[in-house]
Write a structure and sequence with these properties.
heterotrimer, A alpha/beta, B mainly alpha, C mainly alpha, A: alpha/beta, Rossmann fold, 2 domains, 6-stranded mixed β-sheet, 14 helices, 44% helix, C: mainly alpha, ABC transporter involved in vitamin B12 uptake, BtuC, two-stranded antiparallel sheet, 12 helices, 4 strands, 4% strand
């Protein structure tokens, strides 16, 4: 049945090829407003909506959607017309190839700007396509440094980079625990290895001895061989760059083998799910999240989100909410939804969003992005400290200053 | 069939029609969306891969479950020689042959120690070889950074000849050529070349020798065929096509990482060859086209249909696609064990073998 | 020394699970020369069914051991049913087709089983409830848990039981006869179809037990777990000589130990800084640094490399007898 479907589609395409030969319209013109009272402005959003991280993808999408609905309710005038924003949500399945395809799809749909993608792994292959079309892209969750190191003027992110998160957790480990020897483990993924590299750099700079890197894969469930080796080397702390599904067996088996060291993780393994998978072994673990903790986002956003979706944001929704608002704000300032016109405004924007004040440096990274350190206390992740501008600030102090 | 072969006028009209539709296809697709041109580009890459693997599996009868390794070798050769990673920017017409040659070398490397192995043992060794290549690509970032490991290589140069770049927009004679459209024509050209080579190979001395090896290696050797060299040649030739496809993938994608060369991809290419009809070039092309387009079609239909019917997604399109895919593999094998368009030799074989 | 012993214990436990899974591959291969690629998925389904049953029973306050036994008791027949269905629907019609056809069907069945499991049990990593209190014993400085001891005992028990079945019962004799020559076995009055189906069912039952053991040992189960476990177990079967029952056991245990020792020691041996004459010329070595050529990241490479080397030098595996051409 499918083969027939594909055949008929193919045949239809061939027939279409035979009949219509008119020149296709050039695609660069994006976000052009049709004449009339109100102008439709499309904003794209890309995240995995299927697969293992679909819940995070939906969370990101909800953040962006909320911003757009609020903007529509506010009857913003752009270029003399009432702007009607629509969200074009796409699924990149966390696959680099699909990421590029979906980016092309959004360019075809003539979106004025894009919020996303969720993963660095799909953001990077998609970025040249957006760049060529000149469409501004703001990711609220892709933390790999490479994304903004490509030199694309239209690429932004309002979340911290791995090379800010790595130093943050490393500085915290080095200053709080004062370890003599640290073991680093990663899952051989772009994210895990990148993060562990940054932690290693910071630790070495702080004169902490680091053991040769141990590695698993993003599917490893048996860490015993690696852990047994580590046990013999007696590190004071262990850092693992990887996701929850592999971090949980790591910490659990580590405790079973009698390793007493402090375990620490990046944002990939910084969620409540950890307790369910590894139980008591998780007590006392440290982990970091790029940005401020969800509960520290502005109350106005949290209330609106709760009211709209009857759920709390998971991790990155405040950032995608801000990202969508940043695009809209820049359009307002430029009084145009033409990417070429509002891009300069976006580059020099000063905006206070749900995650605090935002402005971009010349690479498109957020200036002074915060990183939060959490500690697992009786089965709950408890924000302990915030890292900002190279310094660790205790969480309570940070909340007080932020409230002012 | 013989009917139109006998009448050149009809035949040439047919050829002209096919050529014409292939030429205007990207513009028709661009009407729907440039995305579809890009999807077609990927489909052609899979055709190249499937045709390459067909030499090894279809012609010579050597089951290779690690074929994607050669694709990876070609892709990485291009990426390393034309990106800021080592700050090398060689032109593509130099790199593609290098990539093909290196891939061919890897083919021989895989082939040489496995000459003695048959059937299933060969399958597991090639599978292991594919995984080893991927693991090395993933790990050669330490202690000396060669492949950049899981981080992948970004900002890979697009193909360009002088100032003419394959990735940019350009208007020629009133027609707008987007990047994917330009690549389409290049891919089409390469594909036609590969098809011609395959067709010529099939009926050549080499092709017949491969067929003999596939049917009965011992008998083939007894007839004076140098089975060792011919098997190595099959591995090398299949690999070099994979290498060329890899180089083109690298340039089109502009970013590669070991994630793109996992075992599932090898299985995918094998399925294309087997489902379409091992050993039959047109069958293999059909297999590659079906398996590349069905997922996309499903992507564009399953989701909206479910949204319309149930108001939410019950089953993800990816899951439906994989279920249908698995089911298709089982059903086609049960009812057409030689593939959708079996080669004539296989067809003969099958009817005789059925007990 | 305690580290070495610990690695051996780790390897032995993982390896004995591989061995039980490998038995499923090797039995099927031995009898009809088919690589049942879907066997790993049977193991996964075993783990998943056990997970559901155990989770449902926990609130009733039964003794933990009884809960696990009921879990396994449900998993085994369900997996046997899956194994039987697979053979009947997907493989039996292809018994005389070209060699590649059943292989592709097997891959197809594996994809279907995986995604059906995804629909039933979701994509998430499921946490096996830790109901059996795990106690740790120290043996010569190495830790061994009660679960590890139980796994070793069960696995070796199963292997022994299977050996008795194959070599001491009429069914076993029929299986060996069918493996040697189907047609002649049929002429001797053996119902080949029944024997082949029995082989699949027994293999699937063993797989189910392995799945339950794996789940309780690591405390996790996910719909993708079958493919990697299956691949490793299949390598183990080939390593020992596919089609050969003692070979599968040897291959499994050997693979487990090679992996553990590989991950544990490759890094140390290839740290160029420990070789004085080299360390001087590598700047990374200064001040107690390291320059590791191959770390634990090459763990899987070594597993495959051992496999390839064994096959190149002994093309029919460690214990496999030299067979004629079966291309």
């Amino acid at each position: 049945m499918n083969t027939k479907l594909a055949f008929s589609l193919l045949a239809a395409a061939l027939v279409a090829a035979g009949c219509s030969k008119e020149t296709p319209k050039p695609e660069q013109k994006t976000g052009a407003a049709p004449a009339g009272e109100s102008a439709e402005i499309k904003i794209g959003h890309v995240a995995p909506l299927t697969g293992g991280n679909a819940h995070l993808g939906k969370d990101n999408e909800n953040g962006a959607r909320l911003a757009i609905e609020e903007a529509n309710a506010a009857n913003i005038k752009i270029g003399g017309k009432t702007a009607k924003f629509t969200l074009v949500a796409e699924d990149d399945q966390e696959d680099p190839k699909v990421g590029a395809t979906v980016a092309q799809k959004l360019v075809d749909a003539k979106v004025a700007g894009v919020v996303g993608h969720l993963n660095s792994g799909t953001s990077i292959p998609a970025s040249p396509i957006y760049n060529q079309a000149g469409i501004p892209v703001i990711s609220g969750s892709a933390t790999n440094p490479k994304l903004t190191e490509q030199g694309f003027k239209n690429q932004f992110r309002d979340v911290g980079r791995d090379d800010q998160q790595g130093p943050a957790i490393a500085t915290y480990i080095a200053t709080e625990g004062k370890p003599k020897l640290v073991a680093l483990v990663d899952d051989s993924s772009a994210y895990g290895e990148g993060l562990a590299n940054e932690v290693e750099k910071t630790l070495k700079a702080a004169n902490v001895k680091v053991l040769p890197r141990e590695k698993g894969t993003n599917k490893t469930t048996d860490w015993k061989a690696v852990l047994t080796k580590l046990r013999g080397q007696k590190p004071d702390a262990v850092f693992y760059g990887g996701m929850t599904s592999t971090a949980a067996p790591l910490i659990k088996q580590g405790r079973e083998l009698g390793i007493k060291a402090v375990f620490s993780f990046g944002d990939g393994a910084c969620e409540g799910e950890m307790v369910k998978l590894a139980g008591e072994a998780t007590e006392g673990l440290l982990c970091s999240q790029a940005g401020i903790p969800v509960q520290a986002a502005s109350k106005k956003f949290l209330d609106a989100f709760k009211k709209r979706y009857n759920a709390d944001p998971i991790i990155y929704a405040p950032f995608t909410y801000d990202a969508a608002n940043l695009l809209i704000e820049a359009m307002k300032k430029a009084d145009s939804a033409d990417p070429a016109k509002y891009l300069p405004e976006l580059q020099k924007i000063q905006f206070t969003g749900a995650t605090g004040p935002i402005s971009f440096d010349d690479k498109g990274d957020r200036k002074d992005a915060e990183i939060t350190i959490f500690t697992m206390k009786s089965g709950k992740l408890d924000p302990t400290a915030v890292y900002k501008g190279g310094k660790i600030v205790p969480y309570q102090e940070f909340v007080k200053t932020a409230a002012k | 069939m013989t009917n139109w072969r006998a009448r050149p006028a009809v035949r040439w009209t047919g050829v002209f029609l096919v050529a014409f539709s292939l030429a205007v296809l990207p513009f028709a697709l661009a009407q729907v969306g440039t995305t579809w041109v890009r999807i077609t580009d990927y489909a052609i890459l899979y055709i190249l891969l499937a045709l390459g693997l067909n030499i090894v599996v279809g012609f010579a009868g050597l089951l290779d479950l690690g074929y994607i390794a050669f694709y990876a070798v070609g892709a990485y050769t291009y990426a390393l020689l034309a990106s800021p990673h080592f700050n090398l920017h060689l032109p593509f017409w130099i790199i593609l042959p290098i990539g093909a040659a290196i891939a061919a070398l890897f083919g021989v490397l895989l082939g040489a120690p496995t000459l003695k192995l048959r059937g299933d043992y060969l399958a597991i060794v090639t599978l292991g070889f594919g995984e080893i290549v991927r693991l090395f690509l993933n790990n050669l970032s330490q202690p000396i950074n060669i492949t950049s490991g899981p981080q992948g290589i970004a900002r890979i140069d697009p193909f360009h000849i002088g100032d003419f770049s394959f990735s940019s927009y350009q208007t020629i004679g009133g027609l707008t050529f987007s990047g994917p459209i330009k690549y389409y024509y290049l891919l089409l050209l390469v594909m036609l070349g590969v098809i011609v080579i395959n067709l010529r190979l099939q009926d050549s001395r080499i092709g017949r020798a491969w067929e003999a090896i596939r049917e009965d290696e011992i008998a083939a050797r007894a007839m004076g065929i140098n089975t060792r060299n011919l098997k190595l040649l099959a591995f090398a030739m299949g690999a070099s096509f994979g290498g060329i496809a890899g180089g083109m993938f690298s340039a089109i994608q502009a970013f590669i990482s070991p994630e793109s060369f996992i075992l599932v991809e090898s299985v995918m290419v094998v399925s294309m060859v087997v489902l379409g009809g091992m050993g039959n070039i047109w069958g293999v092309i059909l297999g590659a086209l079906l398996l590349s387009f069905i997922p996309e079609v499903l992507r564009w239909t399953v989701e909206p249909i479910q949204q319309a019917l149930f108001g939410r997604m019950l089953i993800e399109p990816e899951v439906i696609r994989m279920l249908l895919f698995g089911l298709a593999m089982v059903l086609i094998m049960l009812f057409r064990p030689a593939g959708l368009l079996p080669s004539s030799v296989r067809k003969r074989e099958l009817t005789q073998e059925t007990l | 020394m305690d580290t070495f012993l610990q690695q051996i214990i780790n390897g032995l436990t993982a390896g004995s699970v591989y061995a039980v899974v490998a038995l499923g591959y090797t039995m099927v291969y031995g009898i009809i020369q088919l690589i049942n690629f879907a066997h790993g998925e049977v193991v996964m389904i075993g783990a998943m069914v056990a997970f559901t049953v155990i989770n449902a029973l926990v609130p009733y306050g039964l003794p933990p051991l009884a809960i696990v036994l009921i879990g396994a008791g449900c998993a085994v027949p369900i997996c046997m049913l899956v194994g039987y269905g697979m053979e009947k629907l997907a493989y039996r019609p292809l018994r005389h087709a070209p060699r590649l056809a059943p292989l592709i069907t097997a891959i197809g069945v594996s994809i279907i089983l995986q995604h059906v499991a995804l629909l039933i049990w979701s994509r998430n990593v499921l946490a096996f409830p830790q109901i059996i209190p795990s106690r740790t014993y120290m043996v010569g400085g190495a830790a061994i848990t009660t679960i590890q001891i139980a796994i070793l005992a069960i696995c070796f028990g199963l292997m022994a039981a299977l050996a008795i079945l194959i070599y001491r019962t009429p069914l076993g004799t029929a299986m060996r006869a069918t493996a040697q020559n189907q047609q002649v076995a049929g002429l001797m009055g053996i119902d080949i179809n029944r024997v082949i189906a029995a082989t699949f069912v027994i293999g699937a039952g063993l797989g189910a037990v392995a799945g339950v053991l794996y789940g309780t040992y690591y405390g996790l189960a996910q719909y993708t777990m079958g493919s990697i476990l299956g691949l490793k177990a299949f390598s183990a079967a080939v390593l020992g000589g596919i089609g050969n029952i003692p070979g599968a056991m040897l291959g499994g245990v050997l693979l487990g130990i090679v992996e553990a020792l590989g991950a544990g020691y490759i890094g140390d041996f290839t740290d160029l800084c420990q070789y004085g004459w080299l360390a001087g010329s590598i700047s990374a070595c200064d001040g107690g640094g390291h320059f590791v050529l191959f770390g634990s990241n090459y763990q899987d490479v070594f597993a495959f490399l051992v496999l390839i080397l064994v096959l190149v030098f002994r093309p029919s595996g460690l214990l496999g007898e030299r067979v004629g051409d079966r291309a």
